[in-house]
Amino acid sequence: MIAETGLAALWLAAAMALLQLVGGLTLIRGEGRLTPVIKPAALIQGALCVVSFASLMWLFYTTDLSVLLVASNSHIDKPLIFKLAGTWGNHEGSMLLWVSVLSLSGAAIALLEKRIDTRTLQATLAVQAFVALGFFAFLLFSSNPFERLFPAPVEGAGLNPLLQDIGLAFHPPTLYIGYVGLSVAFSFAVAAMLTRQVGPAFARAMRPWVLGAWIFLTVGITAGSYWAYYELGWGGWWFWDPVENASLMPWLAATALLHSVSVLATRNALRAWTIMLALVAFAMSMAGTFLVRSGILTSVHAFAVDPERGSFILALMLMYTSLAFLVFATRIGTVKQGEPFQIISREGGIVANNIFLSVILAIVLIGTLYPLAAEAMGDKISVGPPYFNKATVPIALLLMIALLLGPLLRWRRDELKRYKYWLVAFFAVSLWTGVAIWRFVPGVGIFPILGLALSLALAIAAWVPLKGRNLLRTPLPVFGMVIAHFGLAVSVFGMAAESGFSRETLTALAPGETTKVADWQVKLDDVRPVVGDNWVATEGQLVARNKHKNFVLRPQSRQFYRPEQQTSEAALLTRWNGQLYAVIAQPDENGDGRWQVRLWWKPFVTFIWFGGLLVAFGGAIALLGRMFRRPKKPAVNKWAQA
Amino acid sequence: MRRLVYLACALLMIAQPRLSLAQGSGPTPELANRQLADPAKEKAASQVMHALRCIQCQGQSIADSDAPMAATMRAEVRQQIADGKKPDAIRQWMIERYGEWVSFEPDMKGSGLLLWAAPLLLLLLALFMARGLFRRKS
């Protein structure tokens, strides 16, 4: 019964989306007879999607095995939190989540957006409904999450053990909210082109939505990276894997959009370019969903893949993107590029940001799709971390250099010589750091050295925009910007320190034996079996010793049943200046009672994710400022008027 | 039928040592999960391992994989580095055996050339496109 309710709600929601779209079409034809229906339809559509998604969650909560999706992805023995997380830990459920978030953001626009004119708002909702319709069709015709299974099995198949992790319970929803949030920017952009309202007012209305989506993407990527780091058991935090790239590309586009939209809002410049970025950002979101869901690219993260469904999403993506660009091509002639500015200006700095981010985005896109193109030509090649690092890091470093000065510059025109002392200071800090590392720590690569040098300079430069301001009267978005830029410096510092200074020890230890990694003495005390809810494990007890202090680490090698799979649960010891990462693997081949132990000392590795969270936190501060802006004092004195 | 399978297995087991003899001494399997004593050599080996794809897994390098195949390949890389072979020669050796697919770093020739030229070309293209935005100084 619950399953049928969920399915019915989904159909009704699709009907609402259709109604919304029809209402929007009458708007375009100029008569606008059905436009009053758009707003209520958007709200009802959102509510129906909540009902549908809640039904599916209930089915997973009660482990209703007569539903195919539950039977093939859950198990009666699973801990409750993973039963619930199982709702979106599979293809159908995650697509339902996708559509629900899409509908909810539509409802949120209908409810909250008061800054743009009614026609543009209605057009936005119609475009949003048009996008939703495609994905409703996808769910209802090829990925029905509520399909029944007869006869019902006694127990379910279980969830991939790698996914049975608290981080992963929240990682996909976060990323999806970000992905789908960009659909709002997309709908706004298309609507503004249709109603010819591309200007500062439209940019100010769109900005909080972009900011919100971007915050979720930032948190999602940061969390995903940390998850891969501790769950996959090899100490890496970014693999340039297709699925990671799929989440990075929308983030890069959204970051560029976030910056260019503020130029449009403040200075009425970069109009066409901002619209372009809004379209690209959502196209990248759909491409990401397609890459993840189609299984067209092999990946460490590709858990639920199906080529047939992939082609459905590909068709949707091509349709929406090409329609959007068609509107762009026909309407962009009417959109002027906007106010002019000089190279050395705030706008110029943001153009530099946009150029570098777009180039990185293009490199990631090309590198991700290159193997596909080559395979079509009959070549089977791989493009992996060595390429991506060499191709993107230099441009990311250029971006950091631009970021040292960009936020200090004035709008429209400025002079470099006003900043000569700052420039000298930044240069001195970078040079001093770089030379010191190069001189005293042998064998560190050029990228880590430059990364450390520039991140230290940026850690200072990020705060300079606050200089000379009255902090009590500084707008929140300025604080947000400063914090986010500082967070980037922190994150890059972590990345560079980790890749330049990590120490690794791979060895085999018998209980009682000791090994060494960096400054740590690590002793294998004991190995014993442990039993969990749905797994058994061998657990090593390691004692790490550093200057008279002892710490215990307990890495496990887990054997899950249903489905059967072996995983390494790393043990992490976090200190302020880094992490000790320990893994225990199989018994050694020789059979002499030793255990394979892998140890890493990763200096400042946690800065990577702290930095990422700081970036998101800065975004949140800016968002608060944008949402609850203090009303400007009226220019004319009220009393004088009266 | 089953007998045939046994026979084939037995033949393979006999043939195995000869095969490895023909290749020269194979790597010690321990090297899959043990570092080389010389840090410089281990570093070189690690770089090679991070640039080789584990062909049994999904998108992991052999340095980051628990698959048996990856372990064998790690042992092979460390052994060859220990024998004084150059990293690039090892990469070529792997490519000859497993195809271009095994290398995460496409060669800078043929179709790979475009890939490596892409960053510079894109940067130039972007600068070219952006030049219209700026106002000349009067």
Automatic annotation (TrEMBL), chain A:
Cellular component per GO, a single term: plasma membrane
Stated family: Belongs to the CcmF/CycK/Ccl1/NrfE/CcsA family.
Classification via Pfam families: CcmF_C (PF16327), Cytochrom_C_asm (PF01578)
Cytochrome c assembly protein domain residues: 88-294
InterPro entries for the chain: CcmF_C (IPR032523), Cyt_c_assembly (IPR002541), Cyt_c_biogenesis (IPR003567), Cyt_c_biogenesis_CcmF (IPR003568)
Cited function: Required for the biogenesis of c-type cytochromes. Possible subunit of a heme lyase.
Keyword Transport appears in the UniProt entry: no
Membrane topology: Multi-pass membrane protein
Compartments where found: Cell inner membrane
Stretches assigned to the Cytochrome c-type biogenesis protein CcmF C-terminal domain: 314-626
Protein name, per record: Heme lyase CcmF/NrfE family subunit
Keywords carried by this UniProt record: Cell inner membrane, Cell membrane, Cytochrome c-type biogenesis, Lyase, Membrane, Transmembrane, Transmembrane helix
GO molecular function: heme binding; heme transmembrane transporter activity; lyase activity
Keyword Zinc-finger: no
Organism for this UniProt entry: Sphingorhabdus contaminans
Transmembrane segments: 6-28, 40-61, 95-112, 124-141, 176-196, 208-228, 248-265, 272-292, 312-329, 350-371, 391-409, 421-440, 446-466, 478-497, 604-624
GO terms classed as biological process: cytochrome complex assembly
Highest taxon of the lineage: Bacteria
UniProtKB/TrEMBL annotation, chain B:
Gene Ontology BP annotations: cytochrome complex assembly
Segments traversing the membrane: 113-134
UniProt GO cellular component terms: plasma membrane
Keywords: Cytochrome c-type biogenesis, Heme, Iron, Membrane, Metal-binding, Signal, Transmembrane, Transmembrane helix
Signal peptide location: 1-22
GO MF annotation terms: metal ion binding
Annotated ranges, domain CcmH/CycL/Ccl2/NrfF N-terminal: 32-137
Pfam families: CcmH
Similarity comment text for this entry: Belongs to the CcmH/CycL/Ccl2/NrfF family.
Function in brief: Possible subunit of a heme lyase.
Protein name, per record: Cytochrome c-type biogenesis protein
Species in which this protein is naturally found: Sphingorhabdus contaminans
